[in-house]
């Protein structure tokens, strides 16, 4: 009987990233998908800065940046004219190594992840579906339907449902998926076109006409259109062709279509599962939460789910932590998913609302306010921090403790760059580690050496103070680079007590 440590259902970005991180950490992962081949079309485009930071652990970031497209600005159009612009070139400067908006379409993204996974000897098993699974005290038994129609019974220690909004895993767990569906029908099309909106920047129509956004893709004249389908056409969305789409917004943005590579329609949902875990089964990505495309958050949030769960599963499976560590996955990720759905719902509702008041706000008020807000560095920084997910934190949660400088337990470690190096270089290794900015005690040095816990001591520099880091304290960092402890002292007993209280054994640390 085939046995794996973790059986992953679904080979979208979430499932592939989970398989990659587990493989990196020495866990035997098996990944299946019901489709016969990777997707050639997709809606997800943006790879946020926080995702790129985490992708350094698998040397993915540079490849994505090299092959993707940086968006220089967002332009807001009213009555056929660009009335406001939000510059994006340096919007997150000083906050992250990836202080820009990166476009890298999901289909290309998946192909890259699949290639890297094959380097670990893992191949996605296609045309394979999960039928049922049963849990026992020491694992799971799953019944799979293979491409030839035969059934296979396999075993795993844990199961990860990364199988999308119609998740078989979620339905098998009988977990509720409360929320709703927006009334609008949307279309998405990859096109070759010309016109002023094909300048490599993002363009958004704010008119009372059909909503339309033009997202730039790599290559001159290539873009993705995302727009609404209104009136009686929405009732026959499943049979619509691009020729049926209203031209009002397209003409307002002066987009001259030369070729349509692909076209599809869809409805947008906003839902969060009642639970992200039941026993040995977990829900991730769209199986756990779906939300509007506002801000390009969906795929990145699923990837965050995968990385959060991967190191915890690896620790438990290796004997480096008690099984209770897995309880923190739902606690940390469900809170973020609920906040995200609420936030994107408000933005999405504003952009797509109909009626005289909504038109007034979009066409008169927004074009006036956007340039004013864009002129303030604080406004631009707030926008970038929110959209890029660098403000995502686990403050006040069970694995987070203390505060030092402006940094709290549960925060993303602030990035500090000065000269040639930065404090993120050690984070390429997905392991527990201690950072000290300034000086530390001999006791801390000795304790970390004895317990094989990497200790990185950085000579104090002004850049660290600017980033909000405390001098001569320490930060215990989790394998996913979030701060576990922020502490002003140099006492290793604080670290020892943390590991003891959470059932974590640092000598199983990944090296």
From TrEMBL:
The keyword Ion transport does not apply. One of its GO terms (molecular function) is monooxygenase activity. Its cofactor is FAD. The keyword Oxidoreductase applies. This is FAD-dependent monooxygenase. Residues 4-342 form the FAD-binding domain. SUPFAM superfamilies: FAD/NAD(P)-binding domain. Keywords: FAD, Flavoprotein, Monooxygenase, Oxidoreductase. PANTHER family: BINDING MONOOXYGENASE, PUTATIVE (JCVI)-RELATED, TRK SYSTEM POTASSIUM UPTAKE PROTEIN.
């Amino acid at each position: 009987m085939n046995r794996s440590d973790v059986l992953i259902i679904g080979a979208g970005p979430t499932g592939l990233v989970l398989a990659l991180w587990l493989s990196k950490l020495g866990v035997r992962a098996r990944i299946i998908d019901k489709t016969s081949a990777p997707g050639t079309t997709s809606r997800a485009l943006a790879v946020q800065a926080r995702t790129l930071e985490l992708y350094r652990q698998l040397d993915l970031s540079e490849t994505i940046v090299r092959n993707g497209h940086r968006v220089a600005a967002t332009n807001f159009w009213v009555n056929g004219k660009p009335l406001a612009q939000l510059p994006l070139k340096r919007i997150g400067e000083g906050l992250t190594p990836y202080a820009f908006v990166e476009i890298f379409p999901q289909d290309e993204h998946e192909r890259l992840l699949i290639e890297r996974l094959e380097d670990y000897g893992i191949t996605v098993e296609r045309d394979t579906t999960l039928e049922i699974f049963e849990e026992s005290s020491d694992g799971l038994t799953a019944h799979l339907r293979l491409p030839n129609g035969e059934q296979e019974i396999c075993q795993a220690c844990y199961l990860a449902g990364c199988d999308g909004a119609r998740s078989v895993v979620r339905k098998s767990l009988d977990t509720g998926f409360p929320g709703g569906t927006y009334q609008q029908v949307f279309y998405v099309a990859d096109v070759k076109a010309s016109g002023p909106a094909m300048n490599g920047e993002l363009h958004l129509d704010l008119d009372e006409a059909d909503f339309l956004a033009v997202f730039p893709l790599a290559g001159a004249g290539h873009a993705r259109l995302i727009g609404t389908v209104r009136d009686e056409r929405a009732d026959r969305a499943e049979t619509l062709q691009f020729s049926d789409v209203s031209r009002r917004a397209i003409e307002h943005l002066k987009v001259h279509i030369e070729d349509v590579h692909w076209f599809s329609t869809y409805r947008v949902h906003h839902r969060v599962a009642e639970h992200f875990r039941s026993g040995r089964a977990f829900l991730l990505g769209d199986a756990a939460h779906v939300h509007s495309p506002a801000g390009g958050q969906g795929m990145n949030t699923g990837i965050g789910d995968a990385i959060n769960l991967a190191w915890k599963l690896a620790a438990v499976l290796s004997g480096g932590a008690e099984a209770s560590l897995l309880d923190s996955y739902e606690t940390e990720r469900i809170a973020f998913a609920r906040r995200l759905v609420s936030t994107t719902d408000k933005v999405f509702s504003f952009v797509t609302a109909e009626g005289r008041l909504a038109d007034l706000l979009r066409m008169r008020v927004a074009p006036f306010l956007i340039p004013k807000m864009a002129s303030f560095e604080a406004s631009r920084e707030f926008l970038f921090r929110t959209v890029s997910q660098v403000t995502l934190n686990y403050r006040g949660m069970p694995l987070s403790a203390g505060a030092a400088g402006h940094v709290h337990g549960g925060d993303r470690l602030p990035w500090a760059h000065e000269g040639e190096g930065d404090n993120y270089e050690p984070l390429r290794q997905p392991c527990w580690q201690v950072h000290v900015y300034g000086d530390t005690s001999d006791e801390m040095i000795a304790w970390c050496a004895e317990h094989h816990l990497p200790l990185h001591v950085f000579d104090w520099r002004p850049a660290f103070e600017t980033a909000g880091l405390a001098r001569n304290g320490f930060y215990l960092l989790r394998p996913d680079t979030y701060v576990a402890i922020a502490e002003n002292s140099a006492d290793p007993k604080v670290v020892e007590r943390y590991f003891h209280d959470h059932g974590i054994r640092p000598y199983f640390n990944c090296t």
